[in-house]
Queue: 2 jobs
Job 1
Amino acid sequence: MTVLAGATLIFLMVHLIPGDPVAALLQDQFTAETYAATRARLGLDRPLGAQYLLFLQNVATGRLGTSFRSQRPVTQVLAEQFPYTVELATGAIVLAVGLGVPLGMVAAVHRGHAVDYLTMGAALLAICVPSFVLGLAFLLVFSFHLGWFPTIGAGGGGVLDTLRSLTLPALVLGLRTAALLSRIARSSLLNVLNLDFIRTARAKGASRRAILYRHALRNSLLPVITLLGVTLGHLLAGTAIVEIVFSRPGIGKLLVDAVLSRDLPQIQGTLVVFLVIVIVVNTLVDLAYSVADPRIAYA
Amino acid sequence: MHRTRSGMLGSARWAAVTLVVTVAAMWFGAAPARPASSQAARVVVSNDRDIVNVDPIMISAPADYSVAHLVYSSLVRVKPGTYTLEPDLAERWEVSPDGRVYTFHLRRGVTWQNNLGEVTADDVVAHFQRAASKDSGSIFFNDMASVKRVEAVDRYTVRFTLDRPSLSLLTAVVAYRPGLIVPKKIIDTAPGSLKTSPVGSGPYVFSSWRQGETVVLKANPDYYGGVPPIGEVDVKVVKDDETALLALRHGEIDARYLEIAEVQRDALDSKDVRILKGPMPRTYFFAFNTTRAPFNDVRVRQALWYGLNRRAIVDRIFQGFGTFSDTMVPATVVGSLPGVVYNYAPDRAKQLLKDAGAEQGFPGKTFSLMTLGLQDMTDIAAVAQDNWKALGVNVNVEIVDTPVFLQRARAGAFDLLDFAALRTEPEQFLVDLFHSRNIGSFNFSRYDKADPVLDAMRFANDPKDRIRFAQEAQRQLQRDAPHIPVLNPTLMLALNPRIAGAKLELLIFNVWQWSLPR
């Protein structure tokens, strides 16, 4: 039901965008004749209702139609691009969690000290700087001047080559999420550290390390998991800019190109895939709650 | 053996250090070295867009053409670095005195890639029949409208019969995108495969495509012109010029056309980049909607032309990388009218407005100036907005994307617009943009006063007549001012200095003529 409602919304939004896809496709070969012939060939001369039913039928059968520009099946194009975006998003999430949660913990444990101010200041900066600025700065410093990473592309010459190509884009994409996670992790951990059961653990003589890792951390994870689920949409949207800056293939860049050329089947297909990803991930996040906190159970 | 705790810790620390050093050595050891002479057979060129559809009858973007023209051959082609034609698949050709019959004599023994046999007249006929067909998905069928018949005289001779003479047939059709010949065997069996798996008879074979990133082409061992010295060409997608220049200077790419003036300036200042540059047949222009007041008054249009400081646009926005003239037809295109009439003259502009009954301009009114969200176009619009405000003509710069722009421009839903046309023939500039038959397509200004002279030009059979009519049309357009030509930018190819044999072309690469001298 959610997919049907989402798909309907996607279809309506895509068809409400002003701008003529046939004109964008024909560019300097536009004449009244080429326009009419192309419009008919793409099926745009059919009533909107008929186009909608065809779209729903395609979604139901997983076909998603044919791209106006490349004349290739949308599913085929998405299947080719999807691994690059998954690679990037996974790298970004790993970096975000790997950096954000420990930094939040460090800040919480050293609350009010220089480390806390430094960490949270850096986090604020990371949240404020736009990813394209950060991307270009990283390219200039780490790729061009230091030569540590390639300037363009997604690698492909082996695992190390792929990792080298992935590091900067994943860092740029994940840094903002890492910063948000660190702030949330800090405040959540501080809340938990002030609760009665922590005081009881201290009174019973539990070590500082045991209190932090065994009791406090797990109980402070719920907001972090929630944030991860919520930011997935932002991460997917953010891939477009990062893919463009680092000249990587991927679904984000594909979507931007599709929108700019009004490749309606490609836009619709990509958004449907995003919709399904967000639904699946949020379901997984709900399930993760019960793992993090056994008191939460789903019937 | 008993080991102390400190000894174990010491070992662990050394193990960790060794691990870090090993990983770092692997990491940085795997860094992409700047291309060395041992990699001499491979070059990387870069476009700002990925290929979309490389079937010659459907190519609408320079990126597609830049790949297709390396895979395919045409009957005749533009000689790299020039604007003249040279033989390709046709070793010679003749044109009848009345300009209506073109006969091409094919080279013998030229073979298709993928072992599809010899290139014959039947292939050429099947190809052009497909290009002329609306049902094939061809976007060039209109360009083929003057061609009444294409036939094979014998196995190696092809004859085109035209309804009327067309002096642009060779350059605009036969030697351009729709003229890249595909094999009849594929047309008959799997034409759909040509969109992303081209098979031609050109210097390179299409090897692989990682969408959004790289197309790999390999040298064609059977190319009729000899095996190209460069064995592999990787065509990489890099969206923006800044990143492309960094990658070029870093040795990750070898060639790229740069279009942003700031980046062109940076490239010129770089010691590790070689530059080829020249005038580009692209004209930036403003178009008036001549059906809307006050732009239906020629004096108002002329006033805004005199009131636009085009030298400032060239010098400040384009950093001197460009020239301005008073015609839409760039100086590199045949028939261009030289000279500047509309030098920047605000007083003259005010006088013209006064003559039109608008001495104070149009106070209280704001006109829409539609433009694309590209840096150069919005900057040009901003200068015009400022210049024209001084005349009392207020414009609101409205930024839209290409599909919206084209839809509104073709429907006449604007007051003024700011655009650029990239063409190679006088007919493509003048007929496309000013003939009444193209109102609703590229005649944005909806101007219809030059049809007779434009028809005389496009159906001329004598090259001198073609030039004469083209220049007459341009003089009339200067008088009637439906457009303001703003400038022609500089075409700039940035190269890795190791490349030899590169020529400046129109956003394509003559890689089969390149070499990498030691």
Job 2
Amino acid sequence: MRYVVESCGYCGACVAVCSNKLLELTENEIIIREGCKNCGRCEKVCPLGALISEDAR
Amino acid sequence: MKYDVIVVGGRIGGSISSLFASRNDVDVLMIEKRQEIGSPVQCAEGTTFSTFETLEMKPSKKYICSEIRGAQVHAPDGRTMKVEEGMTDGNILNNNTISEGYVLDRRVFDKYLAIESAKVGTDVMVKTTVKDLIRKEGKVCGVVAKHLGETMEIKADVVIAADGVESNLAYKSGINSIKNPDDICSCAQYELVGLDIDPNLLEFYFGRTVAPGGYSWIFPKGEGIANVGVGVRNSTETAYYYLKKFVSKFDATPVELNIGGVPLSGPMDKTYNDGFLVVGDAAGQVDPITGGGIHITASCARIAGEVAAEAIKEENVSSMSLKRYDELWRDEFEDNLKTSFKFRKAFDKLSDSDMNALAEFFENNDLEKISKLTTLKFLGKHPNLLKLLKDLL
């Protein structure tokens, strides 16, 4: 998963849906821990399109 | 460092939990990851009058932008239905009137609640992120927090997670809190200035081209100013895409952009553990139809603070003791939330033409005088709606 920090609104919707709990919202950044399977769940709920599946690049 | 209660999150759920725990004479620490409480706003800011009854607070002009006296619903084909003052929504929203309440300035309101909590003794740490829970023999007994690069362990008898939709703490405590993406309403909102609107009327717009899986809204915040937003689910385009499209019809200027994810899955199966409670969005305490959660969270957070304080005084913070929180808030809200979730699932199956047909029906009939025969005739012409009604009954 590619994370575009400039497009992030820091809402945390992505964190709520990560099935492996690999995401964490700090004050103004999403941290993606190792192990992401690029499932696209976070991309689906991001209001600003800040998370992009590697396949879509 | 050791406290009786640590509350993680400094928004409405966190401040109210900490306020009511502190009022019950226990030592409380509230931790907020952001450097400023109340910001950024992640909400349309509407709530019911009952929120202030729960808080036993007199509403103040300091944080109330407008008083709402009605709502207008726009069907996909442009038909409108006005919900007048005093009309209720039956049991879906706990008998609150759907069209009366306040639009708040959350930035001021959240900070006000945090100040009220601090005044009665709550310690507050800002710009501090909780990274993990401390557990001993399975029981939660504190948090690992990080402030300006420094990691610290803070012990507590009870940890209350009020850390929003992005909460990882419930999961860390052993509660399954992973949400289905189809149950998350992805939202984007502008605060627009220069609008020609009724300052006391909420407006809702439905339709696949306006907001697939959700709705668009206008929540007035004063003369010519409003929160104008869009919430979508299961959409190929982002909420921001639909927001830009929706606001293009207004000759108005944005002065703020707000983003949010709202959990519409209904409440979690379990909201307590040994030494641990979950409240607010983190616990799914949000109405699955409207996405509104301030008044529900206010009640649940108050219960959480009071139950935590009571359990500490009784020197029993076990899962069995803290279960009282779960029972009390479910007594108040669970039936309504479950009904609302059932209705939301049914509404998901409505096509735009179904919504237009319903709007036409309500436009041509007095809502409070519709006879069974008229309803049956209407449903006979719309088999999809009849099937949905059967599913609901």
